[in-house]
Amino acid sequence: MQHIPKLFAPDNAIVTGESTLADLPGIPLSFGHAYMTLLVCISGSAYFTLNFKDHVVRPNDVLVLAEDTIALLKRRSRCFRVYFCLMPKSFAAEVAYQLPNPLFMFLHDHPHCVPAAKDKPLIAMWLKQMQDITQHCPTYQRIMLRNQLQNFFLKIAEQMPGGQSGSREFSRKEMFSWRFWELVGKHCTRHRGVKFYADALSITPFYLSQLTKEFFNHTPKELIDRQLTLEIKALLSYSNLAIGQIAYKLHFADASYLCRYFKRQTGLSLSCYRQDGEAGNK
């Protein structure tokens, strides 16, 4: 295939495949509704500009592109080919759920990852596993892809250069933003109001909103709700707790309130989510 398809599918769709990107040199890359795009070079080479910095991409190199990454393919060799995985927001959030915060900072600054020579065979095996899952595993495909991608990113996290996430000084705004995200991960099940986090950072809710819109493209409340929704999904998927017990564990007033909250965030009822393959396809 020559083109990466645009993600016009529903929000929970994941699109994978291979492409030559043959018609894209000189054109800013656009991946439709993908929230995050993973590209792995299979063959050939290409010159990319990522956030205005030039990169030479060779076989087994990895590009991790967020929705706000400015990516331009400048030129490519005739045999250039990539594997792509286009992730919608809901799925990207599930993948990121258990990943360490320093990894996000690293990938933000280093969207082009070059593997060590000893790891190149591992990437080839990983690609084969991804292809096998998408072609032959329809029942549990979503959860298997999520696990594969989490392992892939955790491998990058394991091999980040020592102190890399702190190799440059972060601005005051950046530090506030990442600190907020850490607090959300620790406290979202008990504290769902923006004021709690603003107070913890000793800033105003308005300033916090400005920061998260600048660095995460979302309001603080949207980020809190997204993380809490992932916590609910995890309990629905991996525990046998009754709905009332989940409500109690996550500090909701009652099961009814939890049901309304989850329905508002996902468009699904708690029972439907749990029943549909233990949420494996949600």
TrEMBL record:
Keywords: DNA-binding, Transcription, Transcription regulation. It comes from the Bacteria. InterPro entries: Homeodomain-like_sf, HTH-like, HTH_AraC. SMART domains: HTH_ARAC. Residues 178-276 form the HTH araC/xylS-type domain. SUPFAM superfamilies: Homeodomain-like (SSF46689), Regulatory protein AraC (SSF51215). GO terms for molecular function: DNA-binding transcription factor activity; sequence-specific DNA binding. PANTHER family: ARAC-FAMILY TRANSCRIPTIONAL REGULATOR, TRANSCRIPTIONAL REGULATORY PROTEIN. This is Transcriptional regulator, AraC family. It comes from Rheinheimera pacifica. The lineage of its organism: Bacteria, Pseudomonadati, Pseudomonadota, Gammaproteobacteria, Chromatiales.
